[in-house]
Amino acid sequence: MSGRGGAGVGEDVGWIRTNRGVAAWIAGATILLLIYLGTSEWALRELRDGFRLGFFTAVAVFAMLLCAVAMMLDRHRHETDEDIARVTRRDWLVAVVALALCYACFELAWRVDFLLVAPVFLAGGMWTLGVRPLRSAILAAVLVAVVIYVLFRLIGIALPTNVIGL
Amino acid sequence: MFNVEAFQEALVLVFSFNTLMWLAIGVFIGVGVGAMPGLTATTGVALMLPLTFTLSQAAGLGLLIGLYKGAIYGGSISAISFATPGTSEAAATVFDGHKMMQRGQGKKALLMALYASVTADFLSDVITIMVAPMLALIALQFGPSERFWLMVLAVCLLGALSGAHLAKGMLSAALGLYIGTMGPDPISSVARNTFDLWWLADGVHLVPLVVGIFAMGAMLEKAVELMRESRRAQVLKDSVKGLFSVGGEGLTFREYLSCWKEMAIGLGVGTFVGMLPGLGSTVGAFMSYGIAKQVSPEKRIGTGRLEGIAAAEAGNNATVGPTLVPLLAFGIPGSAVAALIGAALMLQGATPGPRMFELYPTVVYSLFIILLIGNIFNLGIGRIFAFVYAKLGELPAPLLVPIVMLMAVIGAYAYANNPYDVLMMLVFGLLGYFMRMFKIPEAPLVITFLLAPPAEENLRRGLLINEGDWIAALFHSPLAIGLALGVVVLTWLSSRVRIMERMQAVSREAQDG
Asked: What is the rounded CA–CA span in Å between residue A149 and residue B404?
């Protein structure tokens, strides 16, 4: 089975990328949440007012499951969103690596020095995404890092400068 | 009831140097955010939200409301200059604005956009100030079951109107409810749904959620796009050159007045759309544009006419004030930005809702005054710096993406000095990226996340009052039954009538012209 393609998607993108396919993944994830809920002691605990602690969580999980099933059956089920049709494993990898670098930047900036780490993160990001030549990226990165530091300092948030020691 | 002392106090607070400075900064940043393709009003407000924690209530409100007003107008600058709307709200402005730009009437088009935006924004703010207290008086009569059903109705409206696909909108709302149940329950503060992670015992904080979903999610999408494309966007530099040259043709007062009918349509449509949860300023702009086109076919809107710009810009800016009406009157945010402004109020200790008029009158009056004078700042800053902002449209995205990512990291941490907030923000960033890929609207998630605790609290209060009788707790009064029926009818209607598809059809018709 193949995606018929909505939103301007012409080529055969495969069932897995249609609304039905993605909804199946979401339904699978929701069932895992349901299992977690069913096996959690807290979910059935009755509070002093007689209310079950997991009631609203269960409502949310069932609502998610219902929506996922509805997406698998409704009139949009064969459609494929343009972005989902184009996205590749490499794109997801790029997103995850970008997030990991953000976290590394945070950890290093707070452990070492914001004014040393932020320009490296910014310049690296700018250069990777296409700012050329490298010296322009470095210049912009240093400038932006200093401006951010000063602005946050002005509003009372001191970003760490353990090495430079401002 | 009008509280003179509180009003005087609000005047002093708002007309202080500190508040006016942050209001001006908010508008200044906002117009820039709007003018830069890729950044939206919601992203800008989400990024600035953590900073309001360090500011006074009035200054924080000034920063966010100024930014919101500025961003909604700012989108028109790049829409007119490059036919690339900085925000989706300005997409309808492209039809006439860019054609005027190509004819060498860019300055006239930009000024019309500014004046129509400010006029409609100001008048809709006046309507907001009149309507919100009246609705709040009605809302004060509601009991727990009515409040519960009102929240459910708002969530259904959001799910139904936030996109063309009902199930995706409702999935987003359900996800928001799920995340909202993580952490302590609202009555007895017993931790739940924490996956045995101690740092989730306090629940998910709003700041990492909104910064992750709106700012980080959007930047991941942009970063992936940039990594995928080897070619860079070519900016039409030449068309901007001379935009504000001495010889450029300005806008006369007569021309401004000649668009009164379109501005009035924009005001009416924008105010109505703004008050309804889920629709937002993009729908306001397109509906206003479509109606103006049908009402006055002789004006040939769509061929590069001032009237088209006036209708679209009045339509989107007129939603700014009214989007706060459900928040102030019922405690229910009608849009993502209203949710963020509500969050800013909560961070400062003032919970939005009908009792706010009694408990925090100074905050309410400050908000109203800021809404009104924000327009003056928007007018001044838009008028003086429009040519600078037109250049911002040329700012390459590779420069912007790492900066916003860094700001998101700092914002998530600075709000509570909690490293786990940064981790949560990054996880929500990935979720936001997935939602963008799969066209799941983000607003229902954030709004339901905010509504989950009060909805649970009201239901449980109803149960306590009715000694555990669910039927009596849920259907306590004819109004509660009416609201419950409203939920059923709305859900059925939205699955049959395809409201958003019709809205999109109107926009396509307007575009095809």
From this structure: 14
Mean pLDDT of B448-459: 91
β-pairing, B183-184 vs B191-192, is antiparallel
Nearest to A131 among B173, B398, B438 (CB): B398
Query: Which of A102, A110, A139 to substitute to test the interface with B, most B CBs within 10 Å?
Result: A102
CB–CB contacts below 8 A, A to B: 177
Q: What is the pTM of this model?
A: 0.86
Which residues in chain A have Cβ-Cβ distances shorter than 8 Å to B403? 122, 144
Helix then strand then coil, in percent of chain A rounded to 5, is 65, 0, 30
At B110, which amino acid appears? L
The predicted-structure confidence for B88-120, as pLDDT tens digits, reads as follows 778 888 889 888 888 888 888 989 999 999 999
What would the pLDDT profile of B135-150 be if each residue is shown by its tens digit? 999 998 899 999 999 9
Backbone angles phi, psi at A52, to 5 degrees: -80, 135
Phi-psi region of B350 (alpha: psi -120 to 50; beta: other; left: phi over 0): beta
Kindly determine whether residue B178 and residue A60, on different chains, have CB atoms separated by under 8 Å.
Answer: yes
DSSP A76: T
CA B50, CA A118: separation in Å to the nearest integer?
19
User: Quick check: A105 and B410 CB within 8 A?
Assistant: no
3-class DSSP string for B410-467 = HHHHHCCCCHHHHHHHHHHHHHHHHHHHCCCCCHHHHHHHHHHHHHHHHHHHHHHHCC
What 8-state DSSP symbol labels residue A67? Answer: H
What number is the ipTM of this complex? 0.90
**pLDDT per residue as tens digits for the range B73-94:** 988 888 888 777 777 778 888 8
Q: Which helix (H) or strand (E) holds A92?
A: helix A89-111
CB contact under 8 A, B167 and A144: no
B interface test, pick of A56, A57, A139 with most B CB neighbours within 10 Å: A56
| CA–CA gap between residue B120 and residue B319 (Å, rounded) | 9
- Each residue of A9-48: pLDDT tens digit? 444 568 888 999 999 999 999 999 999 999 999 999 988 7
